[in-house]
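Quick one:
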Amino acid sequence: MNREYKNIEIKTFVQRILQIFITALMVGIFVCTGIFFTKLHKIDVNYDINNHIHEIMLDNQELMLNIERPSIYANFESSGRKLSEIDTKTSELIALLKENRQLNKAEEEKLSQSLEKLKNYVKEFNSLLGTSGSDFKSFNVLYAQSKLIDVKQNVLEFIFATKISISSIKNYVDFLDTLIENNNNLILEYKNTIASLKQESKIKTDDIKLLEDRIKAVDEEKTYLILSRKLLHGVKQLHEEKEEIKNFTDFENILTQLKLQVLTKIEHLETTNEQLILVGAIFAVLLVFVTFIIFKYSLDLTRALDILYKAFLNSPIQQILINTKNKKNLYIEYVNDTFTFNINTPTEQSENVRKAQAMNFYDSLHGVIDLNDNAKGFDYGTLIQESHNKIQEYNENDITGRKETRFFSIFRKSIGDNIELINKVDVTKKILQIKDYKTKLDNMQKKLDTDSLTGLLSLQALQDKELKDDKSNKNNIFLYLKIDNFNDLRLNYSTIMIDEIIKTFARSLKNALNVKDNDEVLKTTNIYHLQLDEFCIVYKNHEEAMAAADLIQKHFKAKNVNPIMGKKNKFELQINQNMELKDLELNIGISSERDIRKTNQEVINRLAQAILASYETIKTKEPYCVYKEGLSIEKQHAEQQRVVAQIRYALDNDKIFVVCQGVHNSLTKEVSYYEVLVRLRDEHNNIVSPGLFLDVARKVGLYKNIQEVVINKVFDLIENYPEAKFSINLANSDIINKETRDVFESRLARCSRPEALCVEILESESIDKYDDLSNFLTSISLRGCKIAIDDFGSGYSNFYRLLKIKFDYLKIDGSIIESLVVDNNARTVLETLVGFAHKQGYEVVAEFVKNQEILKIVQDYGIEKAQGYELSKPEEPHNIFI
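Output:
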């Protein structure tokens, strides 16, 4: 039976898939048909566009033929009319192309401009044609009377010739100018002769009459020649304009290009139409086939529904078939053997008992499931809780592990028109597993929120509850506590004892806030243990926070402390019977009521504010500090950030450079070698001295980068200036840093003059790894490098160990040299150091020799070398080695 039920389900699923498929096929056919007719319309439109272009091109050719006729026979009215037709048809073409989105703004403008240029050419031609026609009529009147037969024939030939060069017309115009000039000269000669005859005593009337007749005849010829010249000049202009029109092909070229584009589009559209017809035919065949399959499966399903109820009888899922034909009197059609409503009743029950239980169960679902919603199917499930025949809605917060409680997922599906299937799926195991997982997750969260050492709330809890963007706590005030100089305790006590100190302090802190008659708000406040000796308490306002700070100070105040020693209270902490810590101090900082946004990237949240305020108390010695913008510690931080930005800029833009200061023979003042010192240029090209950036560079981890630049520049100086010697300052941290040491040793291995380098070791810096230092100095000494102890006399009790290393120079600390003029003790120290150095065979270098008086003392003490502003100032290498 289960197999039959499964087959029916498969067939139902297949039928639905096929129905979806046939719907998709129908949509595909409609889409193909729509695209097909759309493409047909586009083809018609493109044919229409092609016909428009063709007509315009024919009209343009006809216009050109009309203009090509013999000059004065060209009909300007006909060409003007044809030009007007071209203009109208071109406007229609542009509108048609724009309507079908086949012409962009640039192409439209190009076509319109070329048409406008053609119109201007033709208008100019017609204007010249009209003028020439008028001149020809005047010429017709005179040329019948003129006796200049050769001139007549030549002029007429120029006018009516189909092909004639413009230059030949111009030459004949020049010839006519010559004839006209000759006539002018002849007329002038006749007039002069007549004037001479009139001056004679006896006037010869006949001669004068003859001369006047000749003047008239010559003047008539001149008039004819002038008109001929004017006519030919106009014909020349017509030919020139005709050549301009013939050479102007932009308009025709644009039309030809548009025509090619349209023909290409038509060809593409006709090809895709054939493909669409093929796709449409395939869709139609598939539609017929799928319709047949659906019809066949529908017959099978109709027969299968008759035996469907049998499939439920042996199902492992509790199932009910309900007859819904009569909506008022529903009854149970079938209940399978697995079904039970009472969880305490054995499953071996009669069919009537099971039906009664099923109906009771179905009725109990009202209020839990909307049984009137026919849209719900197998894909819809509602979780319920069932205990002692009572059904209620599932509540994840009311889950127990009692054996009498079961959890079910209810599914409903309509079978045919009048049968409804109810599935009751047991999900008890899954629900209890989920509950167990949630419990474990809650326990894990509690562990994250609780500090394991002190039992206080953790930093994670503070971040989750107070530092998130939550309107309910965004104005809370943070009170931060830290035990001052706690790192000293960590160095002197074991880890177990440090933990005991922290636990004791945490208990004392809670006691401080739980003082009798204290404000209940302060008592119930949560305390957060951030890390080691750092604690935080959160209050609603500044009044509460400051009251708590006063309580804490009062509680921890040591009994035997003289108040004159400072405003900040010291305190004692009893760890156990055998151990008591004394003279401890608390740094307490209180935040403002809101986070402060400096930039889009930088926000000083309230915890950071409280920490900054606590650091301020180290300087002010106040019991506590309330944060406000502009604290000295904040300014110090801002200044450090500015210097860091300078250093990064200099490193990124090659603005780290070196200067050289001479180390001189104290007597002759000749330079023995140059000490190389580092400088940088900021973004404004200002020079920044090392005292302003090296300490910051060490704090932020950029010192190594600067030192590597200096190392490379020192070795470059050795190679570039073969007559000079140089020294470089290396700190103990440079030598134990593998990357810096590798850069130095790599350049030293490739150096052509290692004997030109002196390495100055800072005696004022604490040295931890003497073996590493000794090995390094021995190695470079064997290569020929000189070694000097810098700042000798100011050291970190390295005096004895340094003596075990072979040196070439001892550089006396500058503070001793500067004090020689005013401090006799400084002279005593100097005398001791110089005596010691000379006994050991070291040369001595005096730093900070800034005037002649100090130089004289240095010379008197027999110090071999001196360095300072009295002798030379630091200069860039290119200013020294010219």
